[in-house]
Amino acid sequence: GQCVAHCPVNALKENEAFNPLYAALANKDLYTTVQIAPAVRVSLGEEFGFKIGENVAGKIYAALRRLGFNAIFDTSFGADMTIMEEATELLHRFKNNDNLPLITTCCPSWVVYLERFYQDMIPHFSSCKSPMMMTGLLTKRYYADKKNLDPKKIFNVAIMPCTSKKEEIIRNELAQPDGLEDVDLVLTTRELARMIRQAGIDFANLTPEDPDSLLGEFSGAGLIFGATGGVMEAALRTASVLSGGNLERLEFESIRGLDDIKETKITIDNKEVRIVVTHGLVNVQYVLDKIREAKLNNQETPWHFIEVMACKGGCVSGGGQSYSKEEQVRERRAKGLYHDDEKLALRMSHENPAIKEIYDHFLDAPGSHKAHELLHTYYTAKPIK
Ligand code: SF4
Fold first, then answer.
1. Which domain of life is it from (predicted)?
2. Quick one: which of 80, 71, 36 has its CA closest to 355?
């Protein structure tokens, strides 16, 4: 108590966040699982002397194994799953001209902001859970079953670039009827760095390892989720194919980078789908006000699909990432993700074999009744504090 009160940098208090995790790792009755978000891999290296934006995913998987986790997964897998559901949702709404524009919801800061300040926009929100929640849910409800594990004995951790993700896991709207928590604990990138140091792991010299199957398999589309425009680009790669058409193109340069408002178009069923990507809450207001104006004047919506991230640059610049004084840090971390996407053989969510397996054996099809029951959520207007 006294030490916590007197610790000048609050380090002792932050360490308390690790206690349940250390207890879980030491408890032989528990099976510990962990996922890492796309953005974490292009920031954690900075804590150990690597260049900004260098992708150290392989070393992170290796470090997590040394820390004692039983299975290591990747949130980029959940991002592929989110894309399957969200692209299906877009096609459905577009065909029926229903609640357009569709707005992305994987950023919990943005979700809470909208529930408070733009309540009239709630019907436009995608009902898809975030990649973190989808990976968490499938860990306890699919992986556990496959491996004959009792889901109640799984302790499931998520390493995130973001402090808001700690709030997301306790949202009432995500509570499961049987009381099982899909994700038990969120640690930030900086907290993981501290754990690695406390355990005395020589991070810089670790030999890179692979994540575990099945929830560790991902495409380049899932990986670029960590940068502004990435969710949209991933969705566009898959939407044209799911609509029965051909892939228009793989890369959407015009929605990459740090411009405040970025736009592009694709064609579905010979009709134009107008897209906008925005990041940083000031820019979001501009986009939402335009939509409100169109609605009030009974005009056609200026856009059909909108990606919003609360942090400027997207999750690569999240509040849980390594601190940096470097000006171009956002750009360099995003480059780290796009560079890796280019190198991967698998670049579209619908081609991920793990995703195909889960639909074939568990969820039936994207947008199915079961998929809705498990992978979708809802939003509630909240009082302005
Ligand atoms: Fe968190 Fe920022 Fe990413 Fe939103 S954009 S999920 S607040 S890191």
1. Bacteria
2. 80
Kindly state the average pLDDT of the residues 280-299.
92
Distance 310 CA to ligand 1 centre (A): 6
Are the C-beta atoms of residues 131 and 106 closer than 8 Å to each other? Answer: yes
Number of folded domains that form the chain: 1
352/243 Cα distance (integer angstroms): 18
Q: CATH number, domain at 102?
A: 3.40.50.1780
- Give the phi and the psi of residue 116 in degrees, each rounded to 5: -95, -45
Structural domain span for residue 26: 2-375
**ipTM topping 0.85:** yes
Centroid of chain to Cα 101? 21
Catalytic residues, which ones? 86, 89, 106, 126, 165, 168, 173, 315
- CA 166 to centroid of ligand 1, rounded, Å: 11
Ligand 1 neighbour 310 (Cβ under 6 A): yes
Ligand 1 pocket, residue 164 CB under 6 Å:
yes
- The model's pTM: 0.94
**Virtual torsion, Cα 93, 99, 104, 107, nearest 10 deg:** -140
Q: Is residue 384 part of a domain?
A: no
Does the beta carbon of 55 sit less than 6 angstroms from any atom of ligand 1?
Answer: no
- Please state the φ and ψ torsions of residue 34, each to the nearest 5 degrees: -145, 150
Measured in Å, residue 107 CA sits from the centre of ligand 1 at 5
- Ligand 1 probe mutation, 309, 312, 329, most atoms within 8 A of CB: 309
Cβ atoms of 303 and 275 closer than 8 Å: yes
Mean pLDDT of the region 114-129: 95
381: in domain: no
Q: Is residue 182 part of a domain?
A: yes
